[in-house]
Write a structure and sequence with these properties.
heterodimer, A: 788 residues, alpha+beta, Aldehyde Oxidoreductase, domain 3, Aldehyde Oxidoreductase, domain 4, 3 domains, seven-stranded mixed beta sheet, 19 helices, globular, B: 159 residues, Ubiquitin-like (UB roll), DNA polymerase, domain 1, five-stranded mixed beta sheet, 5 helices, 5 strands, 17% strand
């Protein structure tokens, strides 16, 4: 291969380093106005009356908007259509949008917000799972099974009680993972513009233009054919720009009311209110083990503090129970979970979506079990990894699995075995492993169409345009399209123009979430490129008088593999092909394979293939101050195949960084109903001075489902970092802190024996659904075709 | 809205603009001068994203009034490349994949340019110290450090 596997710069690298990439807030259109949102000052209140007349009369104000003008609700999941663009009768968190103003400039819009009169009847703020469960009468929403419960689930995959009875040792632990937020450097922005043809265009910093398109059509009651959504390059997403948002609908509606373009850029405080970040999750886990370390059964409970709206929450809830099983052999498994509404900014998907919390709990819990049974934690993990092709107790199908190699490499490179327990006072090493999906197996709304589509147009001059709905949020998805098509057509990435994330111009790709883009757009691009290559090669074969099968394409030439001197320029071959076959173009698409799982709720967890990661952390902890310094991180990631090692390592390093922030400092804190720290200064995130050296190791398993064998790499490597740090802290100081972030205060409290561990909320999970095992045709651990 | 007339020298060009008196240098650059390469992450001086150079020193343009910059040399990311060639820092950032989403990168480039002028061969810890006020959420900073080192190496060889 000529392009795949090489560390090439991204196709947009020059634009990014010269400041020429245009983000949503950089757009300026003629006659453009500026809008601002009035947000609720109360965590929970009924709105008795809104009066915008004083604001509307303010000089420079062009239009106002209130909730009653957009009565149709929306939400990312079909089962949770619980948001209104602007509050209709109720506000549910401090920051909930209430009204909007468009004015000739931003300052005037901001001034006018102060002239909007809102009469609130304050309701009890429910700021925790416990408070929300204690007040079923003060319902935040009027849907869900009862009280403030958004969703509750319980599934048995095998008889766990029998499994615990067989065990030599049973252990239970409770963990708490505090919520945290994405903190993208770019504040969300959107521009709406109703054209003279009555068609609407929205530019937005969104990761999911297709879903925004659907939400706009629904809420604005407009034909989707008349709406165009263009996702601008995102200045960081991490999941925080994956929901349709009020500000997007507001600029569209204000443009429809005025016939002028309208822009809105959120300030940093508002970005904290948009949130959709990591759910705070309390977890209880019970595992039975034989003396030799074999797991006999596992029971896992989660309780998610969902915040004020549904968002992706039902999926987040299922994810807290889905992927425990896809790393090690767990023959019987039970999962119970609940998501509760509270009066806080809504939680949703952040890098790792619903899986960092349970992975943290699981890897710490297993470390404790190994310690109690005198087992080496690295050796235990190596002995118990799943076999390729395994189908888990909860019916998740594993394809290739590079976990063993990942573990071996991080253990060897870090010297884990010789360091554990031997580094001396205050220093320690810890290990953990994990798995993640390479794209969700199912779309967010039920349909039978492809998840990703690619269209190719070939120019007579040898240029190639690739059209795809995918959204580059910095991970390099535009570049992946160029690399794949260049590889297949034998041209160079710079010969390719990539047009993405425009619902008018590009075939649908579902969006940049669930680590799906490289695998799905890559496969769609391969199909489209091979289809358009056919007539080009046929024309070249005819001209060169060589059988098609002997032709190869590389470096802008098509040549005879047996005699490379017999060759033709790519552009020349295009002219011949177009002369013979007419205009050249093609489409390709990709849809994940059908899941083997046969239970309701199994829509979350299946994927074309899982990625695997293993991590060793070495740290120093100061007994006096409680401050933890990370000395080094070794991380190995099974990426299937590195399409571009430079970009893969960038994703791995970024994941390590984000995991370190989550385990050591990042937290959403609230006081008296308000976000305590909605600013970048007070919301602590790691700086250049906090970042340790990282040794990244890429493992290739060449997965048959991936393009050239590739799996995801943008989210999975975050997962093992968090438990590896907590396990290293145990090695360093002999203390277990069962909640993150592990702040210096908690280290001090643990050393002084005054740290109270987390406890599960008092809640009775629903009656369990007993899931029968799959037909014997699919035995539990039979390896199936997973060639290296 | 009261406006004031400003005479600014930006990227070597003399510019005269009429701007609202309360506009910060960040706003004047982005809005009045149509130079959107300078980005904003907080507008409170907390993230370093809006860093530009004034007389070669990195400053936060969101906390600076433009009137203080009259008669001084302002450099933004648009002014880093010279004679159609990328600055060695830009070249190194592009080659090493140091710009993922790229939003914080103009601020890092200018901070690094100032550092390299004072310390042509900085150590890793000097680089971390100098860029300690610039936040990046994508990269974990490592590829940024490597690019600054690569550029320093190339610049010192060229000198």
């Amino acid at each position: 291969m000529n392009i795949i596997g090489r560390s090439l710069p991204k196709v947009d690298a020059a634009a990014k380093v010269t400041g020429q990439t245009l983000f949503a807030d950089d757009l300026v259109l003629p006659r453009m106005m500026y809008a601002r949102l009035l947000r609720s000052p109360h965590p929970h209140a009924r709105i008795r009356r809104i009066d915008v007349s004083r604001a509307a009369a303010h000089p420079g104000v062009v239009a106002t908007l209130v909730g009653s003008e957009l009565p149709i609700p929306f939400g990312i999941l079909p089962v949770s259509q619980d948001e209104h663009t602007l509050a209709v009768d109720k506000v549910r968190f401090v920051g909930d949008p209430v009204a909007a103003v468009a004015a000739l400039d931003e300052e005037t819009a901001e001034e006018a917000l102060k002239l909007i009169d809102v009469d609130y009847a304050v309701l009890p703020p429910l700021m925790s799972i416990d408070e929300a469960l204690r007040r079923p009468d003060a319902r935040i929403h009027d849907y869900g099974p009862r009280g403030n419960i958004h969703k509750e689930v319980s599934f048995d995959f095998g008889d766990v009680d029998a499994g615990f009875a067989e065990a030599d040792h049973v252990r239970e632990d409770t963990f708490f993972f505090e919520g945290n937020t994405h903190l993208p450097m770019e504040q969300h922005a959107a521009v709406g513009s109703l054209g003279p043809d009555g068609k609407l265009t929205l530019w937005s910093s969104t990761q999911t233009p297709h879903y925004v398109h659907r939400a706009l059509a629904k809420v604005l009651e407009m034909a989707p054919a008349h709406i165009r959504v263009i996702a601008c390059p995102n200045g960081g997403g991490f999941g925080g720009k994956s929901d349709p948002f009020s500000h997007e609908i507001v600029v569209a509606k204000l443009s429809m009311k005025t016939g002028r373009p309208v822009k809105m850029t959120l300030n940093r405080e508002e970005v904290f209110y948009c949130h959709r970040g990591r759910h705070p999750v309390t977890m209880w886990i019970k595992t039975g083990m034989k003396k030799d370390g074999a797991i006999t059964a596992m029971h896992f409970r989660s309780a998610l503090d969902g915040g004020a709206y549904g968002s992706y929450g039902v999926a987040s809830l299922y994810y807290t129970g889905a992927l425990q099983t896809v790393t090690y052999r767990i023959p019987r498994y039970k999962f119970e979970g609940v998501r509760v509404f509270t009066n806080k900014p809504p939680c949703g998907p952040k890098r790792g979506h619903g899986t960092p919390q349970p992975r943290y709990a699981l890897e710490c819990h297993l470390d404790k079990l190994c310690h109690e049974l005198g087992l080496d934690p690295a050796e235990w993990r190596l002995q118990n990894t799943l076999a390729p092709g395994a189908v888990t107790a909860n019916q998740m199908k594993v394809r290739t699995i590079g976990l063993r190699e990942c573990l071996e490499k991080v253990v060897a490179r870090s010297g884990f075995s010789s360091k554990r327990g031997r580094l001396g006072a205050g220093r320690g090493v810890g290990i953990a492993a994990s798995a993640y999906i390479s794209g969700a197996g199912l779309p967010i709304y039920w349909n039978a169409m492809p998840h990703s589509g690619v269209q190719i147009k070939v120019d007579r001059g040898g240029g190639v345009a690739v059209f795809c709905g995918s959204t580059d949020i910095g991970q390099g998805s535009d570049s992946v399209l160029a690399y794949v098509v260049a590889e297949e057509l034998g041209i160079l990435p710079e010969d390719i123009r990539v047009v993405t994330a425009d619902t008018d111009l590009t075939p649908v790709d579902l969006g940049s979430y669930s680590s799906r883009v490289t695998l799905m757009t890559g496969n769609a691009a391969i199909q489209a490129a091979r289809r358009v290559r056919e007539p080009i090669l046929a024309a070249a074969a005819k001209k060169l008088e060589v059988p098609v099968a002997r032709l190869r394409a590389a470096s802008r030439r098509i040549f005879d593999a047996a005699d490379p001197s017999r060759s033709l320029g790519f552009a020349e071959a295009v002219v011949l092909a177009e002369s013979e076959h007419g205009t050249l173009g093609s489409v390709g698409s990709y849809k994940p394979p059908r899941s083997v799982a046969k239970w309701k709720g199994a829509g979350v967890g299946p994927t074309p293939t899982y990625s695997y990661s293993a991590c060793v952390v070495e740290l120093s902890a100061d007994r006096e101050t409680g401050i933890i310094r990370i000395d080094k991180v070794w991380i190995a990631h099974d990426v299937g195949r590195s399409i571009n090692p430079l970009l893969v390592i960038g994703q791995v390093e970024g994941s390590v960084y984000m995991g370190l922030g989550e385990v050591l400092m990042e937290e959403q804190a609230f006081r008296k109903g308000r976000h305590k720290i909605p600013s970048m200064l007070e919301y602590k995130s790691p700086t250049t001075l906090d970042m340790p050296p990282v040794e990244s190791i890429l493992v290739e398993t060449l997965d048959p489902e991936g393009p050239y064998g590739a799996k995801e790499c943008g989210q999975g490597p975050l997962l093992p970092v968090i438990p590896a740090v907590t396990n290293a802290l145990f090695d360093a100081l002999g203390i277990r802190i069962d909640e993150v972030p592990i702040t210096p205060e908690k280290v001090r409290a643990a050393l002084e024996g005054r740290l109270r561990g987390p406890r599960m909320p008092e809640f009775t999970y629903p009656e369990t659904v007993v899931v029968p095992p799959l037909e014997p045709a699919a035995p539990a651990t039979a390896p199936q075709g997973a060639p290296r | 809205m009261i406006k004031t007339r400003l005479r600014l020298k930006v990227n070597g060009e003399d510019r005269e603009v009429l701007a609202p008196v309360h506009h910060t240098l960040l706003e004047v650059l982005r809005e009045e001068l149509a130079l959107p390469g300078t980005k904003h992450g907080c507008e409170l001086g907390e993230c370093g994203t809006c860093t530009v150079l004034v007389d070669g020193q990195p400053i936060l343009s969101c906390l600076t009034l433009p009137i203080e910059c009259e008669g001084r040399e302002i450099t933004t990311v648009e002014g880093l490349a010279a004679d159609g060639a990328l600055h060695p820092l830009q070249q190194a950032f592009a080659e090493l994949g140091s710009a993922q989403c790229g939003y914080c990168i103009p601020g890092f480039l200018l901070t690094a340019a100032a550092l390299l002028r004072e310390r042509p061969k900085p150590t890793r810890s000097e680089i971390a110290e100098a860029t300690g006020g610039n936040l990046c959420r994508c990269t974990g900073y490592l590829k940024i450090f490597e690019a600054i080192e690569l550029a320093a190496d190339r610049m010192s060889k060229r000198a």
